[in-house]
Amino acid sequence: MPPKIGVYLCHCYGEIGKILDLEKLSQQAGKWRGVAASIHYPGLCSADGLEIIAEDVRQGRVDRVVVGACSPAVHRDTFLRLARQVGLNEHFLERCNLREQCTRAHRDQPALAMAKARNLLKMAVGRLSPAESFEPVSSSTSRSVLVVGGGIAGLTAAENLARAGVNVTLVEKSPFLGGKVARLHRYYPRFCSPRCGLEVLMARLLATGRVTVHTLTEVTGVRGTAGNFTVELLKQPRYVKDACTGCGACLEVCPVEVAPSAALPPGRQRAIEGPGLFPYPLNYAVNRVFCRGKSCSRCVEVCPAGAIDLDQEEDRLSIGVDAIILAAGWEPYDAGRINNYGYGRLPGVITSMDLEVLARPDGPTGGQLIRSHDKKPVRRVAFIQCAGSRDKQHLAYCSGVCCAATLKQIDYVRAVAPGAGIFVFYMDIRTPGNLEELYRRAREEHGAVFIRGNPYAVEWDPVAEELVVTADDTLSGSRIAVRAELVVLATGMVPCAVPAFERLEKDTTGFITGHLPCSPMEVRRAGIYVAGCAQEPMDVSTSVKSALAAAAECLATIQNQSVVVPPVVERHKCDRCGRCVEECPYGACSFDTDGYPAVNPPACRGCGICQGGCPLRCIYLPGFSSREMAGLIEAVDTGSMDEQPCVLAFLCANDAYPALDLAGTRGNSYGANILTVRVPCAGAVNAGWINDALLSGIDGVLVVGCRTTECHYGRGTSLAESRVNNLRETLQRMLVEPERVQVLTAGIEDGQSLVAAIKRFVKQLQELGPNPFKE
Amino acid sequence: MPPKVNLQKCDGCRAESEALCVQICPGDLMALDENNGKAYCRSARDCWDCMSCVKACPNGAIETRLPYQLGYYPAKLIPLVGSNKISWTVVDIHGKVERFTFKNRND
Fold first, then answer.
1. Does Iron-sulfur show up as a keyword for this record (chain B) (predicted)?
2. Is residue A149 part of a domain?
3. Residue B33: CATH number of its domain
């Protein structure tokens, strides 16, 4: 059945109508092939205007609609809602930009504006004639999420997802949940015990009954995409069965003492570990790195429940989930690598995480600050800020939390040693927001001495049996030596490495983060979200916030409300070269069981990078099939430009298209010979379209994308550049000037410079003369 | 004269199953080099100069050198393939350029 296209032109209450002769245009359009109705109206977006279109569709007079009015960025939902109301497929509604990119931009050349409007309308009709309808794809999913990491971020995300009715699998590589937060003594700003918050969280999490917890488990492999991940888990043996009652009899007999860290004395910690103050899970666990094994077996003998089994073996399991939240957390930077501070060599040099353990009532010294070698109380404490941070040799970045953590720890020191001297060596104290109050309190109430200078050495004075910290005080310009019994190194945060996720894109500091600032939680593999310190260094409250954000974004995906219509694969043309699978920035495209590429709807973001790279043009977004694009390009009347070169510009819908809209609105005129096509991303432009344009006699083709670093889909612009460069080389061999095809970049506010670049391009084309393919 | 592959531009169609030139060659002459994953013509004498591979290559990496009976270098014959058009650029030995554009159906 031939298409019945309706062309509806809008006067925009005079703005379009006073420059374009819509009556004439409408008459001309009515004679084009496939056009069944052609109407102009003062304001199509008004209720009456919409009703005209709706009535025509309902009566069956038209089945495809071209709206020649404002930019598609304006009144977007007005017309989409209309299409849904009357049951018109969304892809049968084509917007034609007669205002921003025609009458506003060319108000001084009405004749040329008229020619451009005719061309734009013809292109829209040409594209719509061969268009096919697409039904929105939806697939049902069982809604389950894997959370990697049982720290505060992982627990928060798991708890919120579970409360929203999602089945959650929580994986933690250590024997106990709680992560780094469970090891802290207090957290700021309230100075409450973290165990309190964790308990509440854990109780709510367990109450949902939807969370499966795997401790001592690591992710070894991830396959699939959003809505369809298969995750391989490796579960290390715990050597203690669920019968464990947590009585602690094993701890009493275990002969192997384990120090909490390189700088701390062994306390009550043994090779068999209890859950500490935050008891989840309650079962003890044997650390086989230290355990002497079956030759000792004292714990096995003494256990009243008979729960210890040193023969347990590792277990592998594979689970299917819809989405993954990566909350693998952080490790303190290895202080032993900062040679001049003597960590691990000098007694009394500890890190801030060590001080947390030391300050805890269940720590090796029972919460007292005493010297490890002679058990005397500590009288002078020195804190060294930025130990290894903001230093190119170690961590180039600021971890952002160490300043506040030290100020908090000054509180600890004051609580147990009211008379102790406290010295803080710092480069800059960074306490944004209300944390400034901590800084004020440390100086004014606790009497801590702040010395601005990065110490160059910590040495041991064997005579006085003290540590000596030497630094240049950069404020007074003098050299300072501070004697102390305890030196606390405020080391920075390093992301935990999870080998299964090594291939995810990282920022320059090694943290895994999404597109900043637009979608920070979703990494560039659809369906994987990042929360907590896996994303960037952050404190506890920020971790909780990020976990909530990740849970919210994750929910939106797994609720299966797809916002884009994924591309279609024409199997009879496809030769399975795998470019689309390779180039999809979201991993949404994969080979299905028949060996053909298939797109996973929840993972697809509709960038069209697959269609840009397809050599056979057999994968395409609705509206971009080779028939539609050929129809659009052939509709261009290259002879109507009044001696001006005819230019076809593919504009990225994110930045370039609105930038040109803005330029038109501001009255930056750029010649009516620029015909624009809106594409989802510069990477969606197929080289075949450019060939088509050149073969149809179009003098020059522009591909305008976002700036390379700003592309919403990562590599869109750079892919477009490499594809176009390839084509340009071929053109050169054919003795066609390669300058006829260019890639430009523009930010959303760069309308003016984009117009200037377009003018330069047109000038260049004028010098080159007409397209050699023109007959 | 056989097709000449520009190794800089050829990506072996990502070495996924068969490259496009390998699939299309009617004489089954194109193959992927196992060492570098790039395409090459494995039997130059058998090539008929049908130029199917040149048209199929998505990267424009293949060039056919004309046989001497037709024209010495720099004579060239280069296609540009659109959705429903193909254009042939013919350069003769004097450097004179002619272009022929035809309608066809590729969709």
1. yes
2. yes
3. 3.30.70.20
The 3-state DSSP composition of chain A as helix, strand, coil percent (nearest 5) reads 35, 20, 45
pLDDT tens digits, A84-100: 889 888 889 999 999 98
Tell whether B50 and B71 lie within a shared domain.
no
CA A581 and chain centroid, separation? 20
B90 — contact with chain A (CB < 8 Å)?
Answer: no
- Any CB–CB contact under 8 A between B74 and chain A? no
- Domain count across chain A: 3
B61 and B73 belong to one structural domain: no
Within this chain, do residues B49 and B32 fall inside the same structural domain, yes or no?
yes
- Lowest mean per-residue pLDDT among A180-184, A312-316, A529-533, A586-590: A586-590
Q: Is the pTM of this model over 0.90?
A: no
The answer on A102 and A7 residing in a single domain is yes
Which of B77, B83, B91, B100 to probe by mutation at the A interface, max A CB count within 10 Å? B83
Which of B59, B80, B99 lies at the smallest CB-CB distance from A726? B59
pLDDT tens for B3-57 read 889 998 898 887 566 788 998 899 999 999 888 889 999 988 888 888 999 998 8
C-alpha distances (whole Å) from A175 to each of A217, A262, A282 are 8, 20, 10
DSSP codes, A154-219: HHHHHHHHHHTT-EEEEE-SSSSSSTTGGG-S-BTTTTB-HHHHHHHHHHHHHHHS-EEEE-SEEE
Q: Where are the beta strands (DSSP E) in B39-75?
A: 39-41, 62-64
Q: pLDDT tens digit string along A254-266?
A: 999 888 888 888 8
Residue A71 structural domain: 1-134
Residue A632 lies in a domain: no
Task: Give the minimum alpha-carbon distance from A638 to chain B in angstroms, rounded to a whole number.
Answer: 16
B67 DSSP 8-state letter: P
Residue A8 located in a structural domain: yes
The DSSP annotation for A359-385 comes to: HSTTSTTTT--B-TTT-PBP-EEEEEE
Which residue in A577, A629, A687 is closest to B14 by CB distance?
A577
A577 touches chain B (CB under 8 A): yes
What tens digit of pLDDT does each residue of A262-284 get?
Answer: 888 887 788 898 877 777 888 88
Residue B27 shares a structural domain with residue B52: yes
**How many degrees, rounded to 5, is the angle at CA B90 between CA B88 and CA B93?**
165
Number of domains in chain B: 2
B19 shares its domain with B71: no
Looking up residue A414, the CATH number of its domain turns out to be 3.50.50.60
Nearest residue, CB atoms, B82 vs list A577, A692, A733: A692
Rounded CA-CA distance A307/A326 in Å is: 33
Distance CA A141, CA A518 (A): 26
pLDDT at A80: 84
Asked if the structure places residue A703 within a domain, the reply is no
Which A residues 612-631 touch B at CB under 8 Å?
A: 613, 615-617, 625-627, 629-630
ipTM of model over 0.85: yes
Residue B13 and residue B56 in one domain: yes
The residues of B annotated with a catalytic role in the active site are 48
Residues A123 and A185 in one domain: no
Q: Exposed/middle/buried for A77, CB within 10 Å: 0-12, 13-18, 19+?
A: exposed
Which pair of structure tokens corresponds to residue A418?
């009211």
Examine the domain organization and report whether B20 and B40 are in the same domain.
yes
Within an 8 Å CB–CB cutoff, is residue B70 touching chain A? no
Rounded to whole angstroms, what are the CA distances from A398 to A53, A330, A520, A547, A759? 59, 14, 19, 21, 45
